[in-house]
Amino acid sequence: MSNRSLLNAALLAVFFVACSGVASGPPPGGNRVAAQPARDAKAPVVVGATDFRYQFRDVARDVGPAVVSISATKLVHSASGSRGSGGSPFDFFFRGPGADRRGGGGRGEPPQHKRHKQQGVGSGVIVDARGYVLTNNHVVRQADALTVTLSDERELPAEIVGVDPKTDLAVIKIDAEGLQPVAFGDSDRLEVGEWVMAIGSPFGLKQTVSAGIVSAVGRGNMGIADYEDFIQTDAAINPGNSGGPLVTLEGKLVGVNTAIASRSGGNQGIGFSIPINMARDVMDQLIGGGQVVRGYLGAYIADAGPKLSRSFGYEGKGGVLIQDVGKGGPGATAGLRAGDIVIERDGKPVDDMVGFRNGIARSKPGTATALTVWRDGKRSKLKVTLGELPGEPRAAGKRGGAAGGPDVSALGLGLADATPKLQRRFELSDDVGAVVVQVSPGSAAAEAGLRPGDLIERVGGKAVASAAAAQKAIAAGNLASGVRLRIVRDGRGMFVMLNKL
To answer: What's this model's pTM, rounded to 2 decimal places?
Structure first.
C-alpha cells in the first residue's frame, strides 16, 4: 500500500476546538516577575528565556473571550434493523455514546421508526462584534438547532448565515452585547517551525488550550474538502476542536482547525487548519450575501510532474498540465489547449495544481488573468477572462432559503448541476438534470433511498435541467404527502418518493 493510501486510510473527519480562559497568577514562591505593560498589537513579539513560559498564558487570556463552544442538535428518525450506509466522513459528529458507528440511513423497511435527538459539540471563533462566528460547515450543516456558549458561560441560540461545503466553512450569528472578536493574522506569512496554539472544546471540555508548531503549510489533495491549502500542526486537536482557532504567539488568528489524521480517533500529532486568508475570503462573502462566488477557468488540470513535462519538451520545475478544456468556457475562448503546461500566472511561477486552482477560485468572475504556457517547445502568453464557477449554490446554505432558490439541505440532500466533471466521477451519460452529490445519514433523502451519483430528471411530472430547478420544484411540492422523483442510477431509470420526516 502506498504512503498516500495509508494517509487516506488514517484520515478521520474534522475535529475542532473552542476557546480557553486559563487562570493566572504569580508563580509559586518568591520567584515573581514584574507586571508587563500592555502589548502593541502591531509590534512584533520578542520572547526571552525568562518570560517565554508566560507567553502562552497571555495569548490564552487575550484570545479566550473570542472562542465559543457550539452545541448542534439534530432530530433523527432511526429504524430498528436498518443497515448503515457509511455516508460522509463527518457523520461521526452527531453520534452520541453508544450510537451505531456504521452510520444511519439504511434502505431496509423496519416495522418501527423512532425519533430522538443527537448532539455534536464543536467550536467557533467570534470574528465581528456584531455577533458573527466563524466555524466549520460540518459542525452546523445537519443541525436543527444551534446553541453557542461564550467564555463567560452565557448560552445563546444561533442562526446560520451561510455555509460553504467546498472549504468546510460556515458563518453563524448570535445576538449578544460585549462581544470581543479575535484579531486577524496573515496566514501567507506563516512559516514552518513557528509556535501556534489551538483553543476549543475537545471532547466537550470547554476553554481548552494546546500548543505546538507549524509542521507544514500548503497541504492539499487530502480528500477533506474541495479546496485545500491546509496548515499542518502538531498542536493537539481532538473531536470538539472543529471550527476553533489556531493562533500565533501574537494572539492573531491564522487558521480554523478542521481535521486530523489519526488511526485512533484522537490526536496523534497531525492536525489540519484552514488558512485564515482563504477562510476570510469565504467569510466575507457569506456575511455580505450568504453565498460564495468563485472564478472559473473551464479546464481540467493536473500537476505536470517531471516525466510528463519532459514528454512535452519542458525541463523547468513545477507547472500545471492542461488535461482538457471545456467547450465554450473561458479557457477555450482564450485559446487554451490540452497539452499546454501553465508555468506562470500574472507573472508569478505556478508551482502546483493546488495553488493554481485555489488562486483561480479566489478570483472574482470577470477578472482578467495572464497565463504563460509551454506549448510546442516554447513559451506562449494568453489572457483569460475568468467566468463564474458553474454549479455553485446561489445561496450557500442560509436557513429558510434565500434569494436564488430554496435550500434542500434540511432534507439531507446536496445537489449540483450535471457538469462534465461530475459526469465522469459518477459515470453519467446524461448532461441535464440535478446530480445528487450528498445524502446525510438519517435524513429524508436517505429514507427515500437516494444515493450520491443519482441523477434527478423529473420532480413530480416536471422535467428539471439543473440543480436550481430541482430545488425549486422539490420545495414547491407537498413534502408532507411526498414528492415523486424520477432518477437515473447506473443507467437505469427509477422512481422514489421524497417525504419530509
So the answer is: 0.63
Q: How is 63-131 classified by DSSP, letter by letter?
A: HGGGEEEEEEEEEEEEETTPPP----TTGGGG--TT--TT-S------S-EEEEEEEEEEEEEEEETTT
Q: How many residues would you count in the chain?
A: 501
Which domains does the chain show, CATH number per domain?
A: 67-173 (2.40.10.10), 295-388 (2.30.42.10), 409-498 (2.30.42.10)
Name which of 474, 472, 500, 501 is nearest 487 in CA terms. 474
Distances (CA, A) of 79 to 99, 106, 336: 13, 9, 53
341: amino acid identity, one letter: I
Placement of cell 459515470 in the chain: 427
What is the Cα–Cα distance from 264 to 11, expressed in whole angstroms? Answer: 10
Residue type, 269: G
Active site residues: 138, 168, 242
DSSP label at residue 80: T
In one letter, which amino acid is 360? I
pLDDT value for 29: 38
> Could you report the per-residue pLDDT of 67-109, keeping only the tens digit for each?
999 998 876 655 444 434 344 444 444 443 333 222 333 334 4
- Angle at the Cα of 252 (from 167 to 267), degrees rounded to 5? 60
